[in-house]
Amino acid sequence: MNHFRQLIICGALITGTTAINAQTFKLNDRGYFNAEGVDVMAFDDIYPEGHQAGVSIRNSM
After folding, report:
1. Digit-coded pLDDT (tens) for 15-59
2. 52, 3 contact by CB (below 8 A)
3. CA separation, residue 24 to residues 53, 54, 55 (Å)
4. First-residue to last-residue Cα distance in the chain
5. How far apart, in whole angstroms, are the C-alpha atoms of residue 14 and residue 34?
6. Contact assessment for residue 33 and residue 25, using Cβ atoms and an 8 Å cutoff
7. How many CB atoms lie within 10 A of CB 40?
8. What is residue 39's predicted lDDT score, i.e. its pLDDT?
């Protein structure tokens, strides 16, 4: 779970610092960050065969 938390923090920092007028992203009850027009989800899965992590960005307009 520590990797998941690091991934969320990293994604929030990258997303929040790339635009001059950055929107405020808030973590909702579904587990993803959301702001007007965009949803960002970070995930981390561990399987017996390996490990998978990623960031998904979705336009919600």
Report:
1. 655 554 556 888 888 878 888 888 888 888 888 888 888 888 888
2. no
3. 24, 21, 18
4. 31
5. 14
6. yes
7. 19
8. 85
